[in-house]
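User: Sequence recovery, please. Input:
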């Protein structure tokens, strides 16, 4: 019983995606053709078309999965403990200091190796 339901919704999914794409294309073409109309009217038309296309796309199996994923992602972002401003500044300073220290070490090693190669090969730069 569920297999026939899945096949039925799967065959309709392609039709729903095509309709959503057609609505979006119509919004773009309409926005292009009606450039003489008010910008507010065109923006409202595009927003309404976008909402309609998203509503149709959300009725497909992939659309439902995408909206479920977005909802779960939002819940996970709420669980994150964000650093305070002071913690962010301190961490940034530590990273900058470590980067400066490592760059000085690498600069020194490079200078030593250049002199060593110049000594061995007899070619100076």
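Assistant: Recovered sequence (125 residues):
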């Amino acid at each position: 019983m569920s297999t026939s339901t899945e096949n039925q919704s799967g065959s309709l999914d392609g039709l729903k995606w095509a309709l959503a794409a057609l609505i979006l294309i119509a919004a773009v073409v309409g926005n292009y053709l009606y450039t003489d109309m008010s910008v507010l009217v065109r923006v409202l038309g595009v927003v309404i078309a976008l909402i309609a296309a998203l509503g149709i796309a959300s009725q497909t199996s992939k659309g439902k999965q995408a909206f479920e994923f977005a909802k779960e992602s939002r819940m996970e972002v709420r669980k994150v403990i964000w650093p305070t401003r002071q913690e962010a500044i301190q961490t940034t300073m530590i990273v900058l200091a470590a980067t400066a220290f490592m760059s000085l070490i690498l600069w020194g090693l490079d200078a030593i190796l250049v002199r060593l190669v110049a000594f061995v090969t007899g070619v100076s730069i």
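The chain has four helices and no strands.
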